[in-house]
Amino acid sequence: MLDLMLSSTDRELDLIQLSALAFLPAVFALVLLLVPSGWKTAMRWTAVFGTALTLTVGLCTLVDYHTLLDSRSDRTTRSLYHPATRLDERADAQLAVSATGVGSYLSDDLVARRPWIPRFDVDYALGVDGISLVLVLLTAVVCLLAVIASWTIETNLRTYLILLLTLESGVLGAFLSLDLFLFYVFYEVMLLPMYFLIGLWGGGNRKYAAIKFVIYTLLGSVGLLAAIIALYSVNVRDFVPQDLVKQRAADLKRKDPALTDAKALQLAEVHTFDFVTLGKVGRAVMLALNHQEDRIQVARKKEQGTNEADLRRDRQGTPEPVLLLAEGVDREAAIARLKGQSVCTPTFQYVVFALLFVGFAVKVPIVPLHHWLPDAHVEAPTPISMILAGVLLKLGGYGLLRFAFPLCPWAAHQLAWWVGLIGVVGIVYGALVAMGQRDFKRLLAYSSVSHMGYVVLGLASWSGGADARYWEWAVNGALFQMLAHGVTASALFFVVGVVYDRAHHRDLTRFGGLKEPMPVYSGMSAILFFASMGLPGLCGFVGEFNVVLGAWKFNWGLAVCAILATVLTAAYLLWAWQRVYLGVNPATAAFPDVSAREVAVLLPFVLLSIALGVFPSFLVYQWAEPSVAGWVSQLAPLQ
Amino acid sequence: MFDLSAHPGRIYVLATLLPLVPAAVILLVGMVRHLAGRHAPTTAGAYLSVACLLASAGMAGWGAVTYFGEVERLPAAEVEARWGERFDWIRIGGSVTDQPAAVLPVGYRIDRLSALMFSMVTGIGSLIFLFALGYMADEKKSVPLPPQGEGLGVGGSHSDHSPPHPHPLSPGGEGSRRGRFDRFFLYLSLFAFSMLNLLVADNLFQVFVSWELVGVCSFFLIGFYYERRSAGTAANKAFIVNRVGDAGFLVGMAVAFAAFGTLNIADLNAKFDTNHPQDISHTLWIVLGLGIFLGAVGKSAQVPLQTWLPDAMEGPTPVSALIHAATMVAAGVYLVGRCYPMFAPEVLLVIAYIGLVTLFISATTALVMTDIKRVLAYSTCSQLGYMMLALGVGGWTAGLLHLLTHAFFKALLFLCAGSVIHGLHHEQDLRRMGGLRRKMPITAYTMLVGVLAISGAPLLSGWYSKDQILSSALGFGMANTEHFLLFVGPLLTAALTAFYMFRLWFLAFGGEPRDRKLYDHAHESPAVMTIPLMILAVFSVGVAWGWPIWDAEASALGKLLHAGQPHGHGLKLDQAHKLAEANHLLAGGLALAAAAVGIGYAWVRYGKQAPTPAQLAEPTGLLANRWYFDDVYDAAFVNRTVDAAHLSANVDRANPDRKAEGVPSLDGLMNSAATLAARGGDALRAVQTGRIRVYVLALALTTIGLLGMLFAFIR
Amino acid sequence: MSELSLPPFLILSAFLLACGVFCLATKRNAIGLLMGVELILNAANVNLVAAARFVPSLKLEGQVFALLVVVLAAAEAAVALAIFLNFYNNHATIDVDEATDLRG
Fold first, then answer.
1. C96/B700 CB distance under 8 A
2. Domain at C8-94: CATH code
3. Scanning A96, A119, A229, A628, which has the fewest C-beta atoms within 10 Å of its C-beta?
4. pTM for the complete prediction?
5. ipTM beyond 0.90?
6. CB contact under 8 A, A578 and B250
7. CB B568 within 8 A of CB B394
């Protein structure tokens, strides 16, 4: 693989760029191994440099992605969407090259794929689209600020920083991978550093919290693994380039010369971990299970200027066809083969969706499976809480968005209302329990549960047909809510860390009067509290508002519950604000205001929350929305 | 960008954005200075704020003059183009499906109502900012904290369940705090920006954004003296009660967006121009109207969400004057006026009745209040009820005219109260005042003007608007006789209004001083505070004048508003309007009689002779307890929610501090899987005895068993 | 005496095995365990030799195997005795019920 990367005829720059994005933190972790033990400042600055470099690469990727979108977009519409820049289109092109060796790798399509373990059809596949790029940038920013916040860690500093950087690598890799196996590897890579980070540098009950975190997440991961293997077992020969099928047939014939060519072709099977292909299978299954098989059509050759609008116009009046099967495939045989497989049964779909959903929902977290969160957040040290709240929770939402819904759309559609209900229960339950907490950090942990409920609700608001734009609206809101919550939750955990450094407790009933000795700190905290509360003009509002508007069309009851929960959110946050900042308390009157380092961590968060709240379209939506549009456009017409 | 010849409406955009400049300056300079260690507040930011708002007022004036000139001359379409613009803030979709993009726009639109409101807000705002320069002067240096025991708050709220902690102040005396002069103007400037944004917004989304922003500014201003626990609680209460209203507003917006795909006010109004709107069922129409109205109920402190306004008097008096009298609370009435065609007839009836209930309950409560600001707060509530009632019975012009006149005389009344409080060194109890007209003549007589205006004395501004309200109500009551209460209620309450306002004046300024020491130390306020009083008094007299000035219907302002009246859906509206016209003089005469009765009775009880000790006793009973609204809400909602929160918290995870009160915890349930595994492991451990003989036996038995199975299969 | 056949020897071997297993399972003395093990091994020897004698296709395999078993038994007894000696040095007893260090 390395020689492929470096050979001059085959150099694919985006492979290097995306690999760098994923592995730079790990490289710097290795560099840290070489730094002598006593040089603590050097270690810290190395880590800062590493995360800053990762952020820079991320921003370069953003610029590249924006250029990519811009180069293909239709200037007449105000949106940057174009079917050719969708992730699955780009990934398919790379799959063709990687699998059959036909064609060449493109350097600027921001998808990179190389065979990794050919025996098991595992590819080293990395790629970005708007959805993952939002979260990659969030990760880079939060990890950089977490490293700066880690300045006060003294014991075993090198181990700590290595673990943190490895964690960042794992998360970035998970966001960037296009192959289910690779994704699973990165998903598991995150667990172990987290266990040690909580278990060694945490608070009083850290061992319990760490083991609880690992076991809950592993439970979900095991389900995930089962689902991935179940999906691997599907024969996807009709959805991949037919050259690959011919190759497999040739392999079969080589092993067993007795077979005729035709028989070998008939018996050839292709399995894959590539989620784009599996997504096509999922959609075909949905059409088949809904008795709409006649909509499954074979893809046309890519002609100049053809786009979906033209295709739609060609077929006026008939139900819209969905181009899933690969070129050159016999449609009838393919559909018969699909129906003959176990993947095309409701049981398979429900079970796999449930496994995927539970696997990711543990991380979101949804309500019955959220108990690891308060313990992990409270016991973890401040920078780790920041990363946990800001980044790791988003993996759950990302998994639902990227894997659970597109791979099993039929089951997702059947269960959409239940998923929405789970989201709303999370919102209301999280808010109520947060109100009853005495520990500041625990209150924030439950508020995270509450805010992530909006993400689940947004994803679940499946409205089809002409109302698909409301679903698009809701999913955009869910994506933005993930970003906004990442910013505000990380910042608020640091806010708690600042006051914990001074008071050495987190009991809300013993605080009070912080506004007088710490006015700058209180000002910044005020902005973050109100951002968390969903005040318009700050980042937390945009996502919530979009989700509510989109969810109304889906089910007004769920939307009304979500709206009423905003009152609860304001109530517990303002009550916490009053108990901590207002009033007079001689115990806190001597606290020093924020230091330069603390301002260096808080100020970017504050500025981000204001900027994202005032310019969401310019900063995020213009380049993230096309991906969501593509996502919805693939699923909504299937209804 | 500011191409005023093609888009003169942009002057309003500039006027709206201008107050952000001093806010940003104060924020940045303050932060840098604090981090550098210099904690004393600066004053330059305050002067900058005043200057910017005066500039905005000037621009608003120019804009109003230009607009009213153009709207007469030019065709409507051209006026729309010149005085309104919008651009997309969030735009999603529009390329994938064949549907148009879903857009949340930002824009402005000037029409008669918004031009008048903008000028009113900037004008009154400038005067109040000037007043605040004098009133808040003692915040320029360190302020002593009140001695312990007087309402010091140490976090928590009144329904906190934890045991009380005693927190005595250290005797060495850290009994003072830093001044907050600059912060006051920071919040005021932010508020000015938000309020002006609300006025010029052309779509419900932008209104909602400004709605919440003014709520936040109000939160910080009510909780300005945050060392007092009551201030923090009042700020929380205001924000949360407003949030309930905002939830309703969100529901209304969601219905509108789902049904029409747009939130633009003019577009939505156009859809409801006829009496039978398409695209939306009647039930949904009612829900839409009720949702938007619920937002207005929260913001304008109508029943049942009125409990936050009296508590909001914790804030400094200029705040009460600006936010809780003239502008923010007016936003609810303004919204109802702007969205008038969106309300179904049933909803308009609900609006009228809620207005009726509010105006009555608040007026009766004001009768017994002893704090000068509380009386004015309840009076504000009551007058807002008048405005809502007027809007509900089809008197669009009457309600909004009252909004404009009320802003002037209520601001005047509050500023006079502020002047009194300032002059008496922060004494607010009416029972300890008396005879102040000799020590503070300017304050006393400008306040008399305000009191006369609110009571509806002829030829003062309040008379014109009250007259129109009552005649609209009479017309509606005569057209729909089953709703005649909607006329009788306001009429009776007019008497109550006159009574309690004159009671206020007589207790504060009339008679002889009841607290000699207080009286001796009283002094008139400095010029920076009395000049706004005098200007406002002039406006309170003449702002609604028209020609001839004795004809209530000839008000110039009223005519300007009337030209912009939208189509309403009230019951038998045309008939009501005709009857209102016909019986105008009757209504006016009855109103005058009611006012006279109120004033006369107040004179008899408080003016003619000194009040008796019985009259000065602490009031008790239903009225003094604000009709028990606070108590009911506390018991039914606040305490229940906190209980539910504690229950949920315990259900979620057993609280290690208190032993589980018999409630199994969810966390325990999930951990039970782990516990089961652990116990199972423990149980299985018993097999591994470590004793060889047991192992040997097990080996032997297993071998026999396996062999047996093997032979069974072979058989 | 009737012609000798295989079954009696197998019965003898089984009986010896049973005795050996019983001894192994019930003796508390470590040396007693070793006796049980010897009994089992000798039972196997009897079985092997008898099989070699009475099964036509086997020639010498059984006897050779029996010799191997004897050697192994000796070696294993030596090792076992060494372990028991060490155990006695640490625990001052050779009661196998005291050897519970590996309990779960």
1. no
2. 1.10.287.3510
3. A119
4. 0.88
5. no
6. no
7. yes
